[in-house]
């Protein structure tokens, strides 16, 4: 027999036999629900036989037979009522367990997020794609789909979503395109490091979403609940259904603040900050300006994260301020990195190590932040060095800049679009989905092995736009993404190490060395970051003007 645990309250299973009931009781279950009608299979025990064995084992039982493929709304209500009435935990079964898992999913839909339901059943080995609309609709069968239909639907209105919509509209002005995003405000997130360093004002990094949606593109101000790629449909909150001919998925990633115990409760106070949030980046600068002595921690979680250099950029700009103001000798800077290297592309490491030395920062590799006590001003790290037993260390701090753990958004992780790790599964060259030919993805959410940066999205948008346009014309992919990403490492106020690289760490500089040598700190790279890239973002990238972003063309073999 199989125990397919959905959560602590319920486990489902394929058909069981009377001799299994003692084992079920021994495992701690107190009730059994049978969802399989008697006589469905020749080798199937009757419910009466199951009930007698259950009674002998001290278990309560209920018989709720469901015909395969015909779970009604009222059946789910009855199942939910049984879960409330019976002593738990509950063990439910049918022929394969699918009917029981479906009943549980629909019975919980009114009070539980669809992504959480889909994740729980997926972890137990059951795919609820067939009832996803009912789950999103609170467990009820939708009476009116109210379908909208577009040539292209773009999920996500961040850097990738707006850029690819603009690029596609420029290539195919007549396309009926919709962007789905619930946010009112669009942020220039690469600017937040500069806000935390006292260079930019936070307000300069924000604009209204409505002002950036390309002319002629529809904006559906809603959150996505689920995908039905087999029906070419996106299900929105409230169970509205949006149909598409082609889908582009780019909602970014999830900053998983809750993955660190105690972190959410102390963010923005007790000296705990992060440049990964618009409202917290100004607090970073407040703390840096106000710190005269003590210990400053800068943390970096396991990969992947957006802008892998951002955690140390905060360190460098803070160290530079303390250096210039004569306070560095009184401040203990500690870089707590869950990984084993300072930066993933070795060509840039020597220049960065010079600044680590300049700011007298200690590098602590394989240190992953797991808990924070803001009032006590302590941070706990799991230390997992190669070939050693993991340990935990607790470190006191006066200021701590946290880079949160990151993962794919919940509605992506539980969808048919995701790989085993939860990211959208694409071909790394064409950015087309590996399973669904009419779906593409770009930006932080997809699984190509590139750096997750806005610069990467700037390069990916023309590739996807080219390939979607070619597909509309009945052609094969015409453009390739080479893995380009850029990380302007702000090593001091006025100088940047401009890291530009592609797949496999290949250096892909945009400028000749005599203009910018990316392996060295330069004033020219700082001017690029401070004065040129923000207007390029707002006025070029988001408007479909592909400056410095010409895609590589597919070459005939």
Output the radius of gyration.
27 Å
Shape: globular
Helix content: 25-40%
CATH fold-level assignment of the largest domain = FAD/NAD(P)-binding domain
- Terminal CA distance reads 53 Å
Q: What number is the mean pLDDT? A: 93
Counting DSSP E segments of at least 2 residues, the number of strands comes to: 29
Structure commentary:
The protein has 557 residues and is α/β, with parallel strands linked by helices. The chain folds into three domains: 4-136, Alpha-Beta Complex (Protein-Tyrosine Phosphatase, Chain A); 149-253 and 408-553, FAD/NAD(P)-binding domain (3-Layer(bba) Sandwich), CATH 3.50.50; 257-406, FAD/NAD(P)-binding domain (3-Layer(bba) Sandwich). Helix content is 27%, strand content 23%. The chain contains 15 helices and 29 strands. Strands 6, 7, 10, 11, 12, 13 and 24 form a seven-stranded mixed beta sheet that branches. A five-stranded mixed beta sheet has the order 1-2-5-3-4, with helices on both faces. Helix 3 (73-85) crosses helix 4 (98-108) and helix 7 (159-171) packs parallel to helix 14 (454-472). It is globular.
């Amino acid at each position: 027999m199989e125990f397919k645990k959905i959560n602590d309250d319920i486990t489902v299973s394929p058909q069981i036999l009377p001799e299994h009931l003692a084992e079920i009781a021994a495992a701690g279950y107190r009730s059994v629900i049978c969802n399989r009608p008697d006589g469905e299979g020749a080798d199937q025990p009757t419910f009466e036989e199951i009930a007698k064995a259950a009674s002998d084992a001290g278990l309560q039982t209920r018989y709720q037979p469901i015909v395969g493929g015909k779970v009604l709304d009222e059946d789910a209500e009855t199942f939910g009522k049984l879960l409330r009435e019976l002593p738990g935990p509950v063990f439910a079964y049918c022929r394969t367990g699918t009917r029981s898992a479906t009943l549980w999913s629909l019975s919980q839909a009114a009070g539980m997020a669809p992504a959480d339901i889909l994740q729980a059943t997926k972890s137990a080995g059951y795919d609820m794609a067939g009832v996803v609309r009912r789950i999103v609709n609170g467990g009820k069968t939708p009476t009116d789909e109210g379908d909208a239909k577009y040539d292209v639907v773009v999920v996500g209105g961040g850097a990738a979503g707006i850029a690819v919509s603009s690029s596609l509209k420029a290539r195919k002005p007549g396309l009926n395109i919709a962007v789905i995003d619930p946010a009112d405000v669009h942020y220039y997130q690469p600017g937040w490091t500069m806000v935390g360093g006292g260079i930019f004002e936070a307000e300069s990094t924000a604009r209204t979403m409505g002002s950036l949606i390309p002319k002629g593109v529809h904006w559906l101000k809603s959150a996505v609940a689920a995908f039905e790629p087999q029906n070419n449909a996106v299900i929105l909150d409230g169970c509205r259904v949006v149909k598409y001919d082609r889908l582009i998925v780019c909602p970014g990633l999830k900053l998983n603040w809750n993955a660190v115990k105690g972190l959410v409760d102390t963010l923005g106070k007790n000296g705990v900050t992060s440049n990964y949030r618009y409202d917290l980046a100004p607090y970073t600068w407040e703390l840096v300006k106000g710190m005269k002595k003590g210990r400053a921690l800068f943390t970096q979680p396991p990969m992947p994260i957006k802008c892998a250099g951002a955690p140390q950029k905060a360190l460098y700009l803070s160290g530079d301020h303390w250096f210039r103001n004569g306070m560095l000798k009184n401040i203990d800077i500690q870089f707590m990195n869950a990984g084993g290297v300072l930066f993933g592309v070795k060509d840039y490491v020597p220049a960065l190590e010079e600044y680590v030395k300049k700011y007298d920062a200690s590098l602590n590799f394989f240190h992953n932040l797991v808990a924070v006590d803001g009032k006590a001003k302590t941070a706990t790290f799991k230390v997992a060095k190669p070939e050693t037993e993991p340990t935990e260390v607790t470190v006191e701090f006066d200021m701590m800049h946290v880079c949160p753990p990151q993962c794919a958004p919940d509605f992506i992780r539980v969808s048919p679009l995701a790989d085993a790790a939860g990211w959208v599964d694409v071909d790394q060259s064409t950015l087309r989905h590996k399973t669904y030919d009419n779906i593409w993805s770009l930006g932080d959410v997809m699984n190509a092995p590139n750096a997750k940066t806005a610069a990467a999205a700037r390069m990916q948008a023309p590739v996807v736009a080219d390939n979607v346009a070619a597909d509309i014309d009945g052609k094969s992919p015409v453009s390739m993404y080479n893995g380009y990403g850029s990380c302007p490492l702000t090593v001091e106020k006025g100088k940047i190490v401009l890291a530009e690289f592609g797949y496999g760490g290949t250096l892909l500089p945009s400028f000749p060395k005599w203009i910018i040598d990316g392996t060295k700190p330069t004033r020219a790279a700082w001017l690029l970051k401070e004065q040129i890239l923000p207007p390029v973002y707002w006025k070029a990238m988001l408007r479909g003007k592909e400056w410095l972003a010409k895609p590589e063309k597919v070459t005939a073999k």
